[in-house]
Amino acid sequence: MVILSHPLRQRRPAAMAAALVATALLAGCANNSLTTGSVNPSSSKPIAQMSGGELQGALASYRQRYERNPDDKAVAIRYASILRMNGNNDQALAVMRKAAITHSRDKQVLAAYGKALAGAGQFPAALDAIQRAQDPTQPDWELLSAEGAIYDQTGRPEEARLRYEKALQLAPNEPSILSNLAMSHMLQGDLSTAESYLRQAVQQPGADSRVRQNLALVVGLQGRFEEAEDIARRELSPQQAETNIAYLRQMLAQQAAWNLIKEEDRRATN
């Protein structure tokens, strides 16, 4: 996550808004690197639902598997996903770039490569890869949602929401799509609508910690700090909760700095 410093005072509010939600749209909150542990390398548990300890164990296991056979596309894709969940976006991109060279026509590899590009902030290339991975005859809702997130990051909210609507038609009430849709409204300053979508998302089966932490962020941005911290603490160990609270406070502090910049801009134009 970007920390506000003096050079950022040159940025405009729209750029600041994008910085505030960059991790929320395509990754998630700071629920990683918290504890030690292990995970069965063959586990099919969704990476987004892994605890911090499971992520660390998965990272070690898949690093070894990838080093033994870097051309195994399934291992490369899962290893890159785990790297991204641990915040190692550049390394994830390097893994998927190599896989994309080896498996240049593989749709799964292209999709994972697009997500890795987006995680590294290379949005035009990410959009191209994800669109090439999409099959118009059998659309993939995850790719539509990822495409929407990229449009949001590049200031095209109308196109983003069209993708989310199409994704929801394929996967009604899918919490990750609802969360991305909420972040889209957050980017445009519509916090109440964002909260409404996130409230709906957290009620769905399969809603993971990232969705709840996005809700905590949106609630906090509306000034309801105690409620936000309570949401951020739910269903987490004390250590995980404190890490997420620290992340939440950092994000809210950045929002406060953004508001100061907007006020300075307003005064300068008057």
TrEMBL record:
The keyword Zinc-finger does not apply. InterPro entries: TMTC_O-mannosyltransferase (IPR052384), TPR-4 (IPR011717), TPR-like_helical_dom_sf (IPR011990), TPR_rpt (IPR019734), UCP035836 (IPR014596). Residues 1-27 form the signal peptide. The keyword rRNA-binding does not apply. One of its GO terms (molecular function) is identical protein binding. It comes from the Bacteria. Keywords: Signal, TPR repeat. TPR repeats lie at residues 141-174. This is Tetratricopeptide repeat protein.
